[in-house]
Amino acid sequence: MVGAIAHRGPDDQGVFVGDDIGLGHARLSIIDLASGQQPMANAGKDVWISFNGEIFNYVELRDDLIARGRHFATQSDTEVILQLYEEMGPDCVTLLNGDFAFALWDARRRRLMLARDRMGVRPLFHTRRNGALYFASEVKALLEVPGVSAALDPIALDQIFTFWFPLAPRTPFKDIEELKPAHVLIADPDRVVVRPYWSLDYPRLGEEGAHDPRAEGALAEEIEHLLLDATRIRLRADVPVGAYLSGGLDSSIIAAAAKRIVPDRLRTFSLTFESPEFDESEHQQQMVRALGTAHDSVACTAGDIARLFPQAIRHAETPILRTAPAPLLALSGLVHRDGFKVVLTGEGADEVFAGYDIFKEAKLRRFCARQPHSHRRPLLFRRLYPYLPGLQSQSPKYLEAFFAAGLGALDDPLFSHLPRFRTTAGAKAFFSGDLRSALGGYDALAELRDSLPADFARWHPLSQAQYLETAHLLPGYILSSQGDRVAMAHAVEGRFPFLDHRVVELGARIPPQLKISGLREKHILRKSAERLLPDGIVNRVKQPYRAPDSQSFAGPDCPDYVARRLATADLAAAGYFDPRPVERLVTKCRNGKFIGFRDNMAFVGILSTQLWHRAFVGAGAAATIASAVA
Amino acid sequence: MRADTERKVRKFIEDNFLFREDRAAISDTESLIDAGLIDSTGVLELVAFLEGELGLRMADAEIVPENLDSIRAIVGFVEGKRAEVAA
Predict the structure, then answer these.
(1) A-contacting residues of B 2-41, CB under 8 Å?
(2) How many domains does chain A have?
(3) ipTM for the predicted complex
(4) Secondary structure (DSSP) of A86-110
(5) Cβ partners under 8 Å of residue A204, min gap 6
(6) Smallest Cα–Cα separation from A227: which of A533, A484, A537, A468?
(7) Shortest Cα distance from B15 to chain A (angstroms)?
């Protein structure tokens, strides 16, 4: 099992086997290189831990524990968890500020504790076979267990083809679950309990606090100080730390904060694209000049994306609807080659401070719904998506029609996301008859609605939309397929100051009108960044990180595997998609004209599902579909 | 003539948006947007088909959902334009 995930920790491996337990570990040495080996035990050798990730406030926690009379044998953050557990039991997780997934064995109580960080940065999967509980950072380790095999969960695929990710704890693998973010699993001899230890919460509508312009400056300052501290503790490492620089506001803030803390030794890394539609190198260079960092970049062509895509799927372990993880795999490869193990990134700012276009889009849709006969209001959608040429040429009536989804249901809890979900779900048109039969009348939107927290309906619409992004898309896709999995493919650990839970909690309390002012996204964050960044970066309109999708597989240098995976024989053998419609889609994408969101997502989703199938299931899976919905 | 137009339009929708011949999948009156078949790029694709394959000349003001958001609407629009030209 450890060998299957050796890429996550190439520096060392260790195993502990007790009476009722076995713990394995693949170590990526970052803190206490000399004595931080794992699995690690307490002084009494009756509590053992295998831990992936970092506890960023371990220095303060360690000092507190020493002040209470405890003695430490190592300098590592791992030992801090052990000793904190001895003091507090499973509640110790509430004091941890970090990105972690760990398994802790308490031999005296015969208790296993699995825990995962609040935002879902580090992955943790588990499954039960023959009365035993197996767990691992990646599913491929679980597939090494005798009796555990991979089969597609059709409901998960339906969810991916609606939301871009399965609803946790569901995974694409039937009978294999993930531990949800901010949850612990406690397995005692007589029962297994999974419970949350933290939850994302927003003020109730009308209780968000009034918009007081005089308070804006103080709030911006509070954000700046907190971000600097979140960055400071994320620079703790006994190896050099770098930073990703996309050219946008968020990564620029983090790189500037890091530069302020470690002026002489910050290294930055960027991705560039050959297509100007996706490339941001001009803005990256502007920041490099402003910060004076040592900088390195990797150019990613469409051919590179096609070449890297199967590897991205093997690491992400899920069908995906965008190619965006593949370039990030190239970027982590660059970081690794340059000798770095840790990078800071700007991930999380769009969720916490409301940067995504979907937030403004939902605001505009509500604005249009108030005057349904206005011909001027829909024109504002053009301002929302200046980087989408297809949208710029549309008439107001079409703009209104495209963004009208759910206008009749303003109180639908998923209002903000209905257009996106509708477009994405269009890709389900390619599902095979067998897959449709297995799904029956399954309704992914209904399941998501039913899973929302009790207070959700009492939140401001922006908070509701932020919740959907932060609690679902962030851990389900951004932090996994575009985050941990493609970084750890090259033994690179991403660290995210915007996802420090103190920042997340502060962000949730900020009045909505300070997050989106008019149609200016991340208003308050921009204000707090004014002292850190050049004007051109602070006031730059957001350009979302995107990579070429189906075009990546349409060029003359497209690898041979694409045709093989999308051939009728392969499609029929896997059984998930109807070959004839897929053939028409492939032809359309190859011709390269008029490829919209749905076609792109369908193409990438089908290809990635076929690659997932080949990587994990192999031949003979078609027969499992009909019986897979339990 | 109308039947021929309807056959061509439906085939175009099936080949490029639906990707399958399936009369049950989209009725003549169903909204192409609500069915998730057409997005902003799809509208441009549809206009290119009407102008290229069916020889229509479309004014910007005519590119609206009333004219193009169902098979029946498209066929009605095409026939109306042809009648205009003939008159």
Answers:
(1) 15-16, 18-20, 25, 33, 35-37, 39-41
(2) 2
(3) 0.85
(4) HHHGGGGGGG--EEEEEEEEETTTT
(5) A455, A458, A459
(6) A533
(7) 7
Confidence of residue A369 (pLDDT cuts 50, 70, 90): confident
Q: Do A133 and A94 have their domain in common?
A: yes
Within 8 A of A603 by CB-CB distance, chain B residues are none
DSSP-assigned letters across all residues of A518-561? TTBTTHHHHHHHTTTS-HHHHTPPP-------GGGGTSTT--TH
Q: What is the C-alpha separation between A186 and A46, in angstroms, rounded?
A: 17
B15/A594 CB distance under 8 A: no
Q: Report pLDDT digits (tens) over B48-58.
A: 999 999 999 98
Q: Which domain holds residue B62?
A: 2-86
Q: What is the CATH number of the domain that holds B18?
A: 1.10.1200.10
Inspect the interface and report whether the beta carbons of A390 and B20 lie closer than 8 Å: no
pLDDT value, residue A626? 41
Higher-pLDDT residue of A30, A619? A30
Of A469, A433, A423, A432, the closest CA to residue A601 belongs to: A423
CA of A615, closest CA in chain B: separation in Å?
27
DSSP 8-class letter at A298: E
The greatest distance separating any two alpha carbons of chain B, rounded to the nearest whole angstrom, comes to 37
User: Do residue B36 and residue A401 have CB atoms under 8 angstroms apart?
Assistant: no
Contact A338, A296 (CB under 8 A): yes
| Structural domain that includes position A354 | 200-427+439-547
B19–A394 CB contact, under 8 Å: no
Contact (Cβ atoms closer than 8 angstroms) between residue A121 and residue A53: yes
Q: Is the pLDDT of residue A630 over 70?
A: no
Percent of chain A with pLDDT over 90: 74
The domain spanning residue A66 has which CATH number? 3.60.20.10
How many CB atoms sit inside 10 A of residue A463's CB?
24
CA distance B74 to chain A (A): 15
In this prediction, residues A414-432 reach a mean pLDDT of 92
Average model confidence (pLDDT) for chain B? 89
How would you label A386-406 residue by residue, b for 16+ Cβ within 10 Å and e otherwise? eebebbeebbbbbbbbbbbbb
CATH at residue A309: 3.40.50.620
How far from chain centre, in Å, is Cα A606?
A: 21
Least confident of A252-256, A381-385, A418-422: A381-385
Q: What integer is the mean pLDDT of A210-222?
A: 84
Q: Is residue A360 within 8 Å of A403, Cβ to Cβ?
A: no
A393 and B44 within 8 Å at the Cβ level: the answer is yes
Residue A113 host element (H or E) = strand A111-116
CA distances from A122 to A192, A229, A475, A498, A524 (A): 21, 21, 9, 16, 29
